[in-house]
Please model this.
Amino acid sequence: MSMMFRNSDQKLEKELAADDYRAHPVRNRLAVLGLVILAIMFLFSFVGGMISPYREDEQFYTYTYMEKEYVGVTRNEDFRYVSAEGADFGSAAQAQFLMAQMMCITEDGV
Model:
């Protein structure tokens, strides 16, 4: 007999849960909003072609020249010297480097 009550109790709980769901189908408002947005997007994918003033095979060949500076470049002729710790790169060495650079002398002496 207890098995019979257990099954009927489970059946009753399922019926009550189903009735509760039907009574309150909108428990999560954001989920319903997302579903509505998806439905609108789905419908517009079919209806949008009828509303649009352009055909789906129409191509646009308009070239517009826009003159706008996106990047600016300046040439820097100054040298910035950085030497390793403990290394000496004094003014005499800097002067020798500048003279060699102005005369385009490489490390090979050419």
Q: What stands out?
A: The helical segments are 2-23, 29-51, 91-102. The chain has a mean pLDDT of 77.
